[in-house]
Amino acid sequence: MALPGGVWPVGVLTEIYVERPGIGELQLLMPAAARLTQQARWLAMIAPPYVPYAPALAARGVQLQQVLLLRPESPDEQAWACEQLLNSGQCGAVLIWLNQAQERTLRRLQHAAERNGTLAILYRSRGARPFPAAALRLHVGKSDGHTVINVLKRRGGGTPPPVRLDLHGALTRRMSIPPWLPMPTAASRLQTAH
Amino acid sequence: MLWLALHLPHLALEVHARGGISGPLAVTENATTKGRLLLCDATAHACGVRPGMTAASAWALCANLKIMPRAPLAECHALERIAAWACQFTSQVSIAGAAELLLEIGGSLALFGGIAPIRTKIGHGLQQLGYSYRMACAPTPLAAQWFVRTGISACLDHPENLSRALNGLPVQVLQSTEAALALERFGSRTIGDCRQLPRDGLAQRLGQEALDEIDRALGKLPDPRPLFKPPRIFSSTLTLPAPAEHAAALLFAARRLYAEMCGHLVATGQGAQRLEFTFYHERRQRTRLALNLVAASRDPEHLLALLRERLAALQLTQPATAIRLVCTQQQALAAENQPLLPNSRTRTEAGIRLLEKLQARLGTAAICGLRLFADHRPEQAWRACAPEERTAPSASPAPGERPLWLLQCPRALHEQGAVPHCDGPLTLLAGPERIETGWWDDHAVVRDYFIARNQAQALLWIYREHGMRARWFLQGFFS
To answer: Are B25 and B127 found together in one domain?
Structure first.
C-alpha cells in the first residue's frame, strides 16, 4: 500500500475524496475497523450517506456492539460530535462525512485526533474544498473494475503512483452468474411466462 | 458519642440569596416588608445598612436595597434539605432548632479520617450549597448546641474536658430566659458559677428544668434526639434572587441544586437515572427539561456538563424566577471503589459519560448502535439499538454477500428493454440469490438478488421482484 508505513495513519486527520459512493471507500477501512472493534474500541460513523448495513459489517469482522451511528442535524453539530468522540479516547476510529466545514473546525478535529491517536477519516465528496492541513489526502475512484487510490498529499512529501485494488473481485468471482441463467431480457420474459 | 452542632446564622437571608449573585439584599423580621431588618448581606452592610433598622432608614442608606419578607416555610424546607444532604456523613442527623442541626459523627471518624477532615468536608459542602455556618463538637448534643450558639468553635472529643469547658459558658445559653435572669441576679454569670450553688435551693428557685438542662449538657442525664430520615425522592426548589435567562446564571443555581441532590443520593445510596428541571416564569408559566441518563450517576460535575449542553439548545421564552429539580427516577448505586484493574471500569464509565453528553446535545434519536436481527429480508436483518447495548449475537450474518451501504428504502429502477438502468444500463456480475420469506406477515418477499455494475463502475445490490410485474430495485452499494 502506498500509505506511509503501509498502514492507516492514526492520530491525524485523513481526508478521502470519494468520486461517488459505492466504489469501495468503506471497504478500504474494514480490516482496520474490524481489528479496532475487536480490541473493544468504538467505531463511530457520523452522518454517513446511507445506512451502514449491520450484516455486512458483521461479516467483515466488525463487532457490532462497538459501532456507534450518529446523525446530528447540522454540519456544526456533526463536527462537534466528532470532536467529542475524538477527544474522549474511547474511539478506535471515527468516520465522518462532512462536506461543509470551516478550516478552523477541521483544525480542531485534527488536534483532537492527534491527542488520542485515533484513526480519523474525513470523507468528502468531489466538490468539497480541501483541508490544507490534512496529513494525508486520498482520492478514491474506479476504473476497469478496480478501485484506484490516488495519494494527493502525504506527510514527508512525494506522491506515489496510484494504487489499484481489486476490492470486490473475490465477491464477483465467488458468485458469478451461472451459465444457464439467461440475461435480464430473457429472464424477464421467462418470468412472465410463469 | 461525638456530636457536631451546625448553626446557620444567615439561613433566613440565604434562602433568598443563594440562587445567584444579587445586589444588596435584606430580610425583615416578620412576613411583611414593613418591619425591622433581621439580616442583611455584605453589599448592604457596606452601605451602612444594619440589622434592626427600619426598612425606610435602610432604603435611605442604600436606594437599590431589595427587602424580602422572611419566609419561615422556605427556611424549614431548606433546613430539611440540608439535613438530608448531611446524612452522607452520618446516619444520625437531627434537626435541633430553627437553624440548627446535630450530627453524631463519632461513628464516622474512621471513615473520614478524623474530626478535622470531616469538619473541613462539611464546611466545604455547605459553602457549595450556599450557606454560611458555624460548627462545634462536643460529647453531648446540648453542649455542642451551647457552644455553637455562643460562637465558640469548640472541638471537645473527650467527656473529661467537657465539664471544664461548660463552666466558662454564660448562663444565657439556658433555654428559659427567666432562669438566666434569676441566676444573673444571684451573681452567677456562668454555668460554672451556677454549679457552685447548692442544688436543692436552686431547684426550688429556678425549677427542676434548668438543672436537668445542665445535667443533660454534662451527660449526666440522657438526651435522646429525634432522628431525621431523608425522603426517598429528592425534590428541591431554588428561588433566584433576580430573574435569569442566561445559561451561566441558570447553571450557577443548578450547581447548588446538584450539590444538594448528590449529597442526598450519597446518603440514600442511590444514583440519579432521570432528572427533571422545571423553570418557573412569571404569570405561572413554566418550562420543563428532562435529563435521561444512560447509567445512574451522582457526580455533580458530570450532571452539570449534561445540563450545559441541554441549556445551550433550550430557548427560554422568559426569564426564570425559580428552578425546581426533581430526581424522578433513581437507582441503587454502590459507593465508589478504586477499581482493581484501572483501565476496564474507568473506560466504560468514561464511555457512558460521553454517550450521555452526546445525547444531551444531539437528542437521543441522533445516536444509535447497530445489531443483527434474525430475519432473511435484508431490510429487516438489522435493527438500530441503544448504543453499547450488550446483547448476545442473536443472529448469524446471512450467508450471501451483503453490501456495506443499504438504502433506507429500496429505490425502483427504470428499465429499458427489460435491462435495469441506474446511471446507465447495469451489467449483472453475480447472482441470483433467491430470498423468499416473510409469508407469515404482510410483508412477504420473493426476490432474486444480483450484484450489478453500472457505467460509473459502482457495484450495486439490486433485486428483481417476482410477481405479476417484475420490477428492479436498488437496495444497496458495495462500498
So the answer is: yes
Say if B24 falls within a structural domain: yes
Query: CB distance B401–A58 less than 8 Å?
Result: no
Instruction: Say if residue B254 is in the same domain as residue B189.
Output: no
CATH number at residue A103: 3.40.50.300
B437 min Cα distance to partner chain A (Å): 17
A187 within some domain = no
Is residue A68 in some structural domain? Answer: yes
Nearest CA to B476 out of B455, B457, B449 is that of B449
- The predicted-structure confidence for B313-352, as pLDDT tens digits, reads as follows 887 888 899 999 999 988 887 665 554 554 455 557 778 8
Q: Could you give the number of structural domains in chain A?
A: 1
Selection from B96, B208, B110, B195 nearest residue B147 by Cα: B96
Q: All 3 cell numbers of residue B363?
A: 437528542
For B90-106, write each residue's pLDDT tens digit.
989 999 888 999 999 98
State ipTM. 0.81
Nearest CA in chain A to B460: A22
Q: Which of residues 99-118 of A touch B (CB under 8 A)?
A: none
Q: Do B418 and A189 touch (CB under 8 A)?
A: yes
Do B154 and B273 fall into the same domain? Answer: no
CA distance B256 to chain A (A): 27
Contact check, Cβ <8 Å, B402/A183: no
The domain boundary, picked from B330, B362, B394, lies at B362
A80: nearest CA partner in chain B: B358
What CA–CA distance (Å, rounded) separates B41 from B44?
A: 5
B419 three-state secondary structure: strand
Which residue shows C-alpha cell 439490486? Answer: B462
Predicted confidence at residue B433, as pLDDT, reads 82
Cell of B55: 426598612
Query: What are the residues facing B446 on neighbouring strands?
Result: B436
**Contact at CB, A52 and B381, closer than 8 angstroms:** no
Q: Which residue of B has its CA nearest to A81?
A: B358
Of A95-99, B73-77, B251-255, B417-421, the one with minimum mean pLDDT is B417-421
Measured between beta carbons, the chain B residues lying within 8 angstroms of A121 are none
Residue B216 has pLDDT above 80, yes or no: yes
Say what angle helices B247-268 and B115-129 make with each other, to 10 degrees. Answer: 140
pLDDT of residue B120: 92
* Residue numbers of the domain that contains A32: 10-181
Chain A residues whose CB is inside 8 A of the B475 CB are: none
Domain hosting B122: range is: 3-218
